[in-house]
Specification:
mainly alpha; globular; 72% helix; 14 helices; single chain
């Protein structure tokens, strides 16, 4: 019954033909997850708020339930918008073939699937192909929600946090994402919206997992003439987030990663970083780490 309700929700979103293809790819995985003991009853109601979220809860953490909490918070915002922005929601729905209620139900069901997978040792039942398909479908739903947040002027942070946590989960389970642009943009946009050092540290901590989703052909960095290539920007953003977190250990890890993968671009980053140390007035400890890597890269450059 639970699996049937999940697939029914996806039919409403994707149509019969696409859902049939989806089922042929990993419907058996859904069944295995659905057959697990349910730790909590799943709710897909849309006539009332999904749940109440404690604003003190972190949006990024290693808690396996945080992804579902972020989705729940985003859906609660969307539900509130149906009541407070009825005209805007009506216009939004008129421009899409998908009903907002059907979309919300499908996303809630995806959240339920992820919660069960994480609660019940997904490593034991999901192979790499399963992780890829489950993550890809979830990302499509969350990217759609992110676009709707923008149009309805809703807080994008819970949705973007969910995207980052989903991608990090994929990385920890050897899943891959061939198009990194959306992930890189999401990471930058999420980080740019906060000044909280603890949250920036938490974001920085999951970036290596996010990097792990890059396929081998992206890691080969064949587009060296493109300064806006996502693989490079992901490393630059990692270093920026680490710097803004004031976390010296995170800075060391991020800077070492940048120098290892992009030694030439690292020189420019640390040169600009030193200018920022003066302009922004970073703490001395942060400045010392930046200075150390700036000196290291400058010395290496002079030897060539």
């Amino acid at each position: 019954m639970y699996l049937s309700s999940v697939l029914l929700g996806f039919v409403d979103i994707w149509g019969v033909e696409r859902t049939a293809s989806f089922c042929s790819q990993w419907g058996d995985v859904l069944q295995r997850i659905a057959d697990m003991p349910q730790k909590a009853a799943a709710s897909s109601a849309w006539t009332k708020p999904i749940c109440i979220i404690d604003n003190a809860q972190p949006m990024i953490s290693h808690d396996t339930q945080q992804l579902s909490r972020n989705i729940a918070q985003a859906l609660e915002q969307l539900h509130t918008a149906t009541q407070t922005q009825a005209d805007s929601v009506a216009q939004l729905q008129a421009s899409h073939t998908v009903k907002l209620s059907d979309f919300a139900q499908a996303l809630q069901q995806f959240s339920d699937i992820m919660q069960q997978a994480q609660n019940n040792a997904s490593d034991a039942i999901l192979d790499v192909e399963d992780i890829h398909h489950l993550g890809a479908q979830g990302l499509q739903l969350l990217y759609t929600l992110d676009a709707w947040n923008l149009k309805l002027e809703l807080d994008p942070q819970p949705t973007r946090a969910a995207i980052l946590l989903l991608v990090a989960w994929m990385g920890r389970h050897h899943g891959e994402i061939e198009a990194l642009e959306g992930v890189v943009n999401c990471l930058a946009e999420f980080a740019n919206q906060t000044q909280d050092a603890a949250l920036l540290t938490a974001v920085g901590d999951i970036v290596p997992d996010i990097m792990a989703t890059a396929p081998a052909f992206i890691k080969q960095d064949l587009e060296k003439m493109n300064p806006g290539r996502p693989w490079l920007l992901l490393h630059i953003n990692y270093a920026i987030i680490a710097t803004r977190s004031y976390n010296e250990a995170l800075m060391d890890t991020a800077f070492q990663t940048l120098v290892s993968h992009f030694p030439e671009e690292a020189q420019g980053f640390f040169r600009e970083g030193m200018r920022q140390m003066d302009a922004v007035g970073y703490p001395d400890a942060v400045r010392e780490v930046m200075q150390r890597y700036h000196t290291l890269c400058s010395s290496a450059s002079s030897l060539h």
